[in-house]
Amino acid sequence: MIPLRDTITSQTMPVVNTTLIVINLFVFLQTISLPPHFYQLYGLVPARYTSVGAWEYFGVVSQVTSLISFMFLHGGWMHVLGNMLSLYIFGDNVEDRLGHGRYLLFYLGGGMVSGLSHLVLNPGSTVPTIGASGAVAAVMGAYFLLYPRAKVLTLVPLFFIPLFFEIPAFVFLGLWFLMQFLNATGGNAGPIAWWAHIGGFLFGMVFILATGVRKAPSKPRKFQARRTHSPRLQIIHVRVDKGGFNLMGRLDITRKEAHRGVVKRVNVFRFGQGRLIKVTVPPGIQAGKRLRLKGLGLPHPEGHRGDLLLTIAMV
């Protein structure tokens, strides 16, 4: 299952989350060709923390630095892009609720706790642990409690057929956590620090419960979002019109996009399953106008198909 986006729109500009994504990508590009001993120095190597000699050799500053630097290192393109995709989907909403400064501390704290979880359960390992997975897992754990009823647009590739589903966040994240636990306890350790993922996820949940953020009312934040663009990938739930063959839905765009015209990718959902289509919005369109996409409705007994009618809404 590959998450593509969620249905919750952030009310503030996710400046911290976006900055973290940029830093991770920048660091990855700078370190992609460095020799393995670099990761021994800046990655999290559990054996370094359980050996007195290692503390004397590396020094306190280097030991503490590695507890933070390891979460900004990645071992390959799939590793970094997978982590950043999850951070992009879930992080902006968590930052929205926590506020910018507290979210940064939460992210770093979640990464450190995830690293310590791996360290405690693998004290003699000399393999460096790297990646933002643990910190991202903390974000996912927080999202699990803050937005359980949100929907996650999920790509499920069935051989060569891409299938799209809207899965409730508590189901998607619950299954993700279960998979981490089964891999951690089933002897399928391999190169992945499963316990770091579990530790990060639990930290995210405990943090939300301990701080009472879930019950706190939303407060205005700094960096209020001035939206010039709506999501490029949108989820649209359609209904059947009175004729029984045309499908009807709503497409959200901003005034700037309405003025200039825009191209959107739209997942049209009906009965829990979706299909991806391309929608071209012409420049100068007004709110309330309808776009007619011919042949994208329901099949007619006479052989032709109905249309998809999308009503333009300004956001």
From TrEMBL:
Peptidase S54 rhomboid domain sequence ranges: 62-210
Its localization reads:
Membrane
Chaperone DnaJ C-terminal domain: residues covered: 246-312
Q: Which domain of life is it from?
A: Bacteria
Q: Which residues form a coiled coil?
A: none
Q: How does it sit in the membrane?
A: Multi-pass membrane protein
Tell me which UniProt keywords the record has, alphabetically: Hydrolase, Membrane, Transmembrane, Transmembrane helix
**SUPFAM superfamilies annotated for this entry?**
HSP40/DnaJ peptide-binding domain (SSF49493), Rhomboid-like (SSF144091)
TM stretches of this protein: 12-32, 67-91, 103-121, 127-146, 158-182, 194-213
Q: Which Pfam family, giving just one, matches this sequence?
A: Rhomboid
Q: Which InterPro entries match?
A: DnaJ_C, HSP40/DnaJ_pept-bd, Peptidase_S54_rhomboid_dom, Rhomboid-like_sf, Rhomboid_protease_S54
Q: Which family does it belong to?
A: Belongs to the peptidase S54 family.
Extract the PANTHER family matched here: PRESENILIN-ASSOCIATED RHOMBOID-LIKE PROTEIN, MITOCHONDRIAL, RHOMBOID PROTEASE
Q: Which protein are we looking at? A: Rhomboid family intramembrane serine protease
